[in-house]
Amino acid sequence: MELKFAHIIVFFLLATSFETLTARKESDGPEVIELLKEFHCKGKLRWPELIGVPTKLAKGIVEKENSLISNVHILLNGSPVTMDLRCDRVRLFDNILGYVVDIPVVG
Questions:
Q1: pTM above 0.90?
Q2: In angstroms, rounded to a whole number, what is the distance separating the alpha carbons of residues 11 and 104?
Q3: In terms of DSSP H, where are the helices of 1-107?
Q4: What is the C-alpha separation between 55 and 59, in angstroms, rounded?
Q5: Phi and psi at residue 96, in whole multiples of 5°?
């Protein structure tokens, strides 16, 4: 029984450490940034260099690099979110191990 439980835990940890696959075009990133510029968001708008960084460290970097960001949310990858755009919000999607798995973007 304990061995079966250990296998389930290992499977869960491995399964949650991978990114959720989503169908995207490579051009989606620049389109989002252009939309945010039209929305008049100021400062740095995305942080591709934070993928693989611990989320708590990434939160501090985002807040330091764009002082207009007042809402940095840490969410488990795949969590449902609203689709509204806000210039003061960045969502950090992490895995069960606490590392950023998607490019943080203002919105």
A1: no
A2: 27
A3: 2-16, 28-38, 55-65
A4: 6
A5: -65, -20
